[in-house]
Amino acid sequence: MEWFAAPDFWLSRLVFQRALAGLYVVAFLATALQFRALLGERGMLPVPRFVEQVPFRRAPSLFQLRYSDRFFAGCAWTGCAVSAALLAGVDGLLPLWAAMALWLVPWALYLSIVNVGQTWYGFGWESLLLETGFLAVFLGNDEVAPPVVVLFLIRWILFRVEFGAGLIKMRGDACWRKLTCLYHHHETQPMPGPLSWFFHRLPGPLHRVEAAANHITQLVVPFALFAPQPVASAAAALMILTQLWLVLSGNFSWLNWITVVLAVPALALPSDHGPGPDAPLWYEVVVLAVAALLLFLSHRPVLNMLSRRQVMNRSFDPLHLVNTYGAFGSVSRIRYEVVVEGTRDTVPREDSDWREYEFKGKPGDPRRWPRQFAPYHLRLDWMMWFAALSPAYAGAWFAALVERLLENDRDTLKLLRRSPFPPGEPPRHVRARLFRYRFTTWRELRATGACWERTYVREYLPPTRLARTAPRP
Predict the structure, then answer these.
(1) pLDDT reported for residue 270
(2) What pLDDT, on a 0 to 100 scale, did the predictor assign at position 273?
(3) For the segment 295-311, what is each residue's pLDDT rounded down to a tens digit?
(4) Of 389, 332, 341, 387, whose CA–CA distance to 364 is shortest?
(5) 3-class DSSP state for residue 137?
(6) pLDDT for 277
(7) Torsion angle of the four alpha carbons 123, 128, 134, 137, in this order, in degrees rounded to the nearest 10
(8) Region 154-182 average pLDDT
(9) Taking a C-beta distance cutoff of 8 angstroms, is the pair 393, 385 a contact?
(10) R_g over Cα of the chain
(11) CA-CA distance, 464 to 354, in Å (whole number)?
(12) What is the value of pTM for the model shown?
């Protein structure tokens, strides 16, 4: 079938595949380095407890069949290795069927992780990586030209990411309609980056221009993805520029980067590669069958986008094949942070020697400037932002975090930037307090060197000690 192939997109496919493999590496690396404290046998939300309560059909995963920390680590590091091989182009050296099978491995492994990841893996970009990774299986390698239908479905994902985010903003917080949300967003976003202070201090009229440009990019430009070239390429390029602007303004894990990756196949990049051989019949049949399935599954995300009760970041099937997306339907006006402290005093008092735990990414010490972590995802830091919004977001895991800190648990302390208590000398009590944070002004920054100013609000958790001294099994 001549219409099946898109020979003008050889280079676009190559860039897409290598970039996606790089994001897989980051995702698996973050899992391998953080899972023990979050999901392990002694983690805050242990996988074994989860799989006892949730059947395989609702959360298909290798870990439904067997779990141990060693097995989980092996899967994560295997995902890293296979993704690194794909990044190096190993799939181009294999027969078509073998290349497809190799691309299926990281998708299946990451699906297994996400489906038992619970709160720690409840972010929209997890499903976005899985949906994109599943389509990558069917893009082919150098034996065949990129299939038109798969390129179309990749644009369909990008359309839903951008248009869904645009709709949720217009239906959500009134400040998006008034073009004033960016007066607050750079200061109150989950994890500010090294330039967020400067973005926040931009003039108000420029913030309004940013908001208006966002609406155009998310509500108008996505339709141009399905226009003939060069219009589709221009739309994709504009989306890439917008995402790079967002990369500079904060830490959003790999959300911005995978959106950039999704835009690449819409670019007709120059290439001297010829049309290549015809695709084998079995490959065409498989690709068309998968495309039909994904288009059928798309009806629920479409209905969600059309609904006045639109939801963000929802998966409608346990394989995360077709999902709905969206971000920042509402914007906080005030930033709150939970500050966790410990003391070795036997009787905790207000004037005790309280020492603050320092997290890697979330604001803490007002003088410590935010760092760039994205596309790497600091899961605990992100959830601490939600915990500050409401204790309900932390109900499942915060008590376990405090218990691990009281034990000086090594795996938990690895998630932090610094513990104030040396090994063998754990705190006797841990407490949490809620503070209001705001970016300092130019004058305050010059005078104090602090980028944040914080004010005590209330007690979040009273001083807490271990209820028992016997070691946990």
Answers:
(1) 83
(2) 75
(3) 999 999 999 999 989 99
(4) 341
(5) coil
(6) 81
(7) -120
(8) 96
(9) no
(10) 24
(11) 13
(12) 0.95
Which of 47, 59, 23, 20 is CA-nearest to residue 315? 59
In terms of Cβ atoms closer than 10 Å to its own Cβ (0-12, 13-18, 19+), residue 361 is: buried
HEC letters along 41-62: CCCCCCHHHHHHHCCCCCCCCH
What's the rounded mean pLDDT across residues 162-185?
Answer: 96
The Cα–Cα gap between 113 and 105 comes to 13
> What is the rounded distance in angstroms from the CA atom of residue 406 to the CA atom of residue 344?
10
Asked, as a colleague might, if the bond just before 230 is cis with ω within 30 of 0, I would say yes
Report the pLDDT value the prediction gives residue 468, as an integer from 0 to 100.
Answer: 62
Q: How high is the mean pLDDT of the chain?
A: 95
In the block, which residue shows the tokens 């346990």?
Answer: 318
Both tokens of residue 185? 């967003």
Residue 461 carries which side chain, given as an amino acid letter? L
pLDDT, tens digit (0-9, with 9 covering 90-100), for 274-287: 777 889 999 999 99
Q: What is the DSSP letter of 435?
A: E
pLDDT at 23 over 60: yes
